[in-house]
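Honest question from a wet-lab person: if I give you the sequences of every part of a complex, can you actually get the arrangement of the whole thing, not just the pieces? Trying it with mine:
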Amino acid sequence: MEKTRDLGRTRERILGAALREFAAHGLGGARCGEIARRAGVNKRMLFYCFGSKEALYREILSRKFTERANFFEAAPDDLAAAILHWYEAGSSDLEWVRLLEWEALGAAGDKLVGEDARRDYFSRTSARLRRAQARGRIPRDLDLSQLQITMIALTVFPLAFPQMTRLATGLAPTDPRFRRKRQRFLRWPGERLSAAPATGTPSASLSKGEGTVGNRAPRRAARGAVGG
Amino acid sequence: MEKTRDLGRTRERILGAALREFAAHGLGGARCGEIARRAGVNKRMLFYCFGSKEALYREILSRKFTERANFFEAAPDDLAAAILHWYEAGSSDLEWVRLLEWEALGAAGDKLVGEDARRDYFSRTSARLRRAQARGRIPRDLDLSQLQITMIALTVFPLAFPQMTRLATGLAPTDPRFRRKRQRFLRWPGERLSAAPATGTPSASLSKGEGTVGNRAPRRAARGAVGG
DNA sequence: AATACTATTAACCGTATGGTGAATACAAGG
DNA sequence: CCTTGTATTCACCATACGGTTAATAGTATT
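Yes, you can. This is the full assembly:
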């Protein structure tokens, strides 16, 4: 039979509820009482287990962050296919995108959660892209760091701005029909990029895509803080 | 000499301070006391002038919304040039982007501020794009509503996720150097799109770009509310 | 200069919230 | 079965915040 007392389990329940609450309302907007209620746990346990709301938030970010990292590691070589993989990786988890977005709004310039890992990701991806460009698989006149954020933008944006997506397309970004259409659309510039006119290699490939995009720390106590 | 009592002026001062505060912290995170302090005005005046925090927020959104709309109205015909104009329109005002982002996170599905105007914008733009496509100036196999949110994504994303932008490019999205690089980058797919291989017209043009992208109403009292 | 009106201020209130002190109940070890 | 440690609960605090009541001081009008 179930143990009536199991700290590990309550921890997990809290983390689950907190993820939902923080994704929905951000650090400042999330309510400890609500997290406890959702977790079916006494509010006090949050502080017993994690010390403070902010520490709990950091824990959530850190977990989600590493979880997502693995996903990104598995990108295929072909650029067009890689874009689709990134789309999958970047848009299959609404809560993650929302956490990213809260962070983007809340960060004041203080160190991000997992900043090193992120920097790592970007520099690895960058090196890979540079190699591909040197081999002529990406047009020489294309700015690679611009290409990077562009790819993230292409995949993350619809989830990050769902109302706008719905207004433009009539579909929710989570709707399977939307996702199919988006994938079809993304294939277009992908192939175009692959057909690299600069050097003329008809089919392109990137090295394998790894890495992640991430998280960050808290802001000024229980609010939001400026972002720049 | 200056009037010591001027309701119009205090209203403006409040609006100015509120814009900054709401852009920085969102509806839930913004503090009435702080707005008053920044405006150099007694807190009571916020409620005297606007009734409630939320009403003030709506006023801010509505103003910013129509202000931006005018900007978007003036897009040139040529697609490549239009993209640059949209970039300018979409990325020249950080506060606006942040308001959009707060909205995106906060909206629970309730009606957006200026939703009708936005729908208008999207349908007008959509019609224009369809005409251009019919004339063969945009590849026939390109999904136009996907194209629309893509263009917004390309221009808005760097400001919406500044930390990511900085990690990828080493520059802040507001940095003039970044903006130049981004413009140069955006010209690339712009010209590529213009060279419409589907029907073969070498130089493309869109009709004029109008419209706007926008705002929304409040959420559950002084918090954040779910977004989907 | 008295009147009437309204912009402005000071003080205050009720509530919600993050966080805590201390009691309590369960489980394992002896 | 009793003790010991810890997971869980209950009651509570201090504070911050949106909003309001009521008094006050400019200003225009006559």
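Two things worth pointing out. The CA atoms of residues 75 and 209 of chain A lie 4 Å apart. The radius of gyration of chain A is 20 Å.
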